[in-house]
Amino acid sequence: MSDKNEPRNEKDRQLDQYRVNDRDKPMTTNQGVKVSEDEFSLKAGDRGPTLMEDFHFREKLTHFDHERIPERVVHARGYAAHGEFECYEPMKEFTRAGFLSEKGKKTPVFVRFSTVLGSRGSADTVRDVRGFATKFYTEEGNYDLVGNNMPVFFIQDAIKFPDIIHAGKPEPDTEIPQAATAHDTFWDFVANNQETAHQVMWLMSDRGIPRSFRMMEGFGINTFRFVNEEEEAFFVKFHWKPKLGVHSLVWEEAQEISGKDPDFHRRDLYESIETENYPEYELGVQIVPQDDEFRFPFDVLDATKLWPEELVPVKIIGKMTLNRNVDNVFAETEQVAFHPGNVVPGIDFTNDPLLQGRLFSYIDTQLIRLGGPNFHEIPINRPICPFFNNQRDGYHRQTINKGKVSYHKNSLWNNTPSPVPPSKGGYKHYEEKVEGRKIRARSDSFKDHFSQAKLFWNSLTPVEKQHTVNGFSFELGKVQSKSLRQQNVEMFAHVDYELARQIADNVGVERPRHVESSGVANSKAISQENTVKLPNTRRVAVLIADGFNSNVVLNVLESLAKQGIQAYIISEKLGPVTGNDGIQLEATKTFQTGPSVLFDAVYIVAGARASKQFAKDALNYVSEAYRHFKPIGATGEGISWLELMKIGNVPGVIVQKSDGREFTNRFIAAIARHRFWNRPI
C-alpha cells in the first residue's frame, strides 16, 4: 500500500509544507524554546503555589482553553477525504470552465460528507439529509460544488432557512431530541409549510439512511448556469453518481449501529481509503438551453423540484476518486470553508431564490466560525493558483505583503494588482436582462407542492413504499400533539391517499378525507431497486469455531477476496481458531465487537468443536442478519444450524450442497444483490 502522505497532486504538494511529523522530535514551546519538564508546573517549593512566571504552563493552558471553535450551525457532524477529478470529455460547447475543458484533465478535490441536524458528537446513521460538498482546486481558482444526497430541498426561498433549521434542531426548552426530526416542532413546520412535501418524502424513505458515504448520490440541488466562450448560457444541475450504486440501511439496523458504532460512516470511508478501495463517483450534468426555460411542467429554478431524468437526461462528464485520508481532522475537515459563490469562469448563478440566499449565508457563517476574513489562507482552503489583491490585515493574516500600496487605482505600483479582461481569463458574470418591481412574493410557478412528491411515491417499489410508511409512522408517532399528527396526515393525503391512510392508522388519528389523485408518472432513477449492484468492498462476517473444514473455508475466502469482498473472522474470542487439519485463522472480532449490523452478509461455518455458547451467539447473530434481509451463506456444520432455524431454503440463503465453486458464485451474486425483500420474516 502506498504511503498516504505521499503527495498525489498539486494540492497535496502545496499542503506538504504545512504537514508536521512530531515523532522523535524534541518538545518545544510555540516559540521554539526546548522544554525540559512537561509533567509539573513551576512552584514555590514542591507543595507551594504555582508561579505566574511559568510561561510554558501559561502557554499550554491558554492554547487548550481556546482550542474549540464554534461548530457549524448545520452539517456539524462531518468527515472528509482528498482525491482527484478526471474529465471524461471536453465540455467547451457548454462552459469555458478550464477543469472541464479537455479529456483526461485532472483536478485535485477535497470532499466533506456530513449529516445536517446533529451536533459534532452525534451518531452517523440517524435519519437525516447528508451533505456532499466538493472543493475543486482548479488552475483558475477554487470551485465549490456544495450539495446534499437528495436532489431537492425543504424550502424555495432562503429567507425561510433559519426557520426550517430552528424547527428541525432539538427543541429549545429541552434540547431534545438530538440529530432527529421525530418531534413536534419539525412536523409543525412541515404541516404549515407545504413546500416541504417533496423533500420530506425523500427523507422518510430509504434515502434518509444511506449504507455509506460511498453508496449515496450527491446533488447540487440548485440550478446554476454554464456559460461558454460565445457567451451562450445553459441551465445546469449537477449530480454525483456512486460507482458502487445507491444503497441504504434498514431502520432497525441503523438504530442499532448508532449504539454499537456511532462512527460507522466515517469509519467506513476511512478504512476504504486505507485499504485502497477508493470511493469513486461519476459527475453528471443535466443541461437545459435557456430557450427551454418554460417548457416544463415545473419551474426549473424551484429548489423543491428535480428535473426528471426521463425529461432531461444526465450526461456523465467525469469521475472523482477519493484516494487519501486527511492527516488531521480539525485542520482539514473542520476548517475547510465551502461557499457556493466560489465559482470559476464558465459557471454562473441563476435567479433560484434559495441559491441567491446561500450566496450570502455561507461566507457569513465562515466569518464567525473561523475568526475573520482570512479563512481563505488556511492551508485546506488555499487555491493552488496564486492570488493577489489589495485586501489586507484582519485576524490570522498569513500573507506578508511587500510595499506600500493597498488600494486600487494606483500609480506607485503601476496600477497593480490589475483586473484581467475576460478574454484573458477574468471572470465575467452572464449578462442577463433583469427587470421588475421590487416585491416580496413568490411566482405562481412555484406553488405546486405535491406533483413531484407524488412522482417520488409512484417511483418506489412496494417494499420502498412500506419503508417510507414506516418512516412516517415512527416520526409522527413521536409527535406529542395529536393535532399535528392529524394535520400532517391530511397534508400527505395530497401525495397519496393510501400513504396517508396507513400513517393515520399507525399514529392514532382519523383517516384523512379522500383527495382525488391524478397522474401516475414515475422515474426509474428514483428507486434504489434500479441501482448498480456490485459485490466489491462489501463486508462479510465469517462465523467460525475450532474444527472447521479448512479446505472449504480457505477456498471460499479466496473467492470472496478475488471479487473485492472483505471477509472478517468472528468467533467467541479474539485470537487463533484452528481448523480440522491444524490450519489456523485469526479472529479479529467477537460476536460482541463485530455485531451483524456492521456487515453486509454473514457466512456461517461453525466447526466440529463449537461450544454451546458459540452456538447460542451464532444463532442469534444469523437470526438478526436474516431479519435485516441480508445474504447468508453456510458450509459444513453451518448448514445444519440453518436447518435448525428453518431458514435453509429461502431467498438469499445459500448453502453448499456439492460443488464448492457453485456455492461461492451463488453467494457472491447474493452479496451483490444486497437485500432479499421477498424473504419470509
From TrEMBL:
<dbReference type="Pfam" id="PF18011">
    <property type="entry name" value="Catalase_C"/>
</dbReference>
<dbReference type="InterPro" id="IPR011614">
    <property type="entry name" value="Catalase_core"/>
</dbReference>
<dbReference type="InterPro" id="IPR010582">
    <property type="entry name" value="Catalase_immune_responsive"/>
</dbReference>
<comment type="similarity">
    <text>Belongs to the catalase family. HPII subfamily.</text>
</comment>
<dbReference type="InterPro" id="IPR043156">
    <property type="entry name" value="Catalase_clade2_helical"/>
</dbReference>
<dbReference type="InterPro" id="IPR024712">
    <property type="entry name" value="Catalase_clade2"/>
</dbReference>
<keyword id="KW-0349">Heme</keyword>
<dbReference type="InterPro" id="IPR029062">
    <property type="entry name" value="Class_I_gatase-like"/>
</dbReference>
<keyword id="KW-0408">Iron</keyword>
<dbReference type="Pfam" id="PF00199">
    <property type="entry name" value="Catalase"/>
</dbReference>
<dbReference type="InterPro" id="IPR020835">
    <property type="entry name" value="Catalase_sf"/>
</dbReference>
<feature type="region of interest" description="Disordered">
    <location>
        <begin position="1"/>
        <end position="35"/>
    </location>
</feature>
<dbReference type="InterPro" id="IPR041399">
    <property type="entry name" value="Catalase_large_C"/>
</dbReference>
<dbReference type="InterPro" id="IPR018028">
    <property type="entry name" value="Catalase"/>
</dbReference>
<comment type="function">
    <text>Decomposes hydrogen peroxide into water and oxygen; serves to protect cells from the toxic effects of hydrogen peroxide.</text>
</comment>
<feature type="compositionally biased region" description="Basic and acidic residues">
    <location>
        <begin position="1"/>
        <end position="26"/>
    </location>
</feature>
<keyword id="KW-0479">Metal-binding</keyword>
<keyword id="KW-0376">Hydrogen peroxide</keyword>
<keyword id="KW-0560">Oxidoreductase</keyword>
<dbReference type="GO" id="GO:0004096">
    <property type="term" value="F:catalase activity"/>
</dbReference>
<protein>
    <recommendedName>
        <fullName>Catalase</fullName>
        <ecNumber>1.11.1.6</ecNumber>
    </recommendedName>
</protein>
<dbReference type="InterPro" id="IPR002226">
    <property type="entry name" value="Catalase_haem_BS"/>
</dbReference>
<keyword id="KW-0575">Peroxidase</keyword>
<dbReference type="Pfam" id="PF06628">
    <property type="entry name" value="Catalase-rel"/>
</dbReference>
<dbReference type="InterPro" id="IPR024708">
    <property type="entry name" value="Catalase_AS"/>
</dbReference>
<feature type="domain" description="Catalase core">
    <location>
        <begin position="28"/>
        <end position="416"/>
    </location>
</feature>
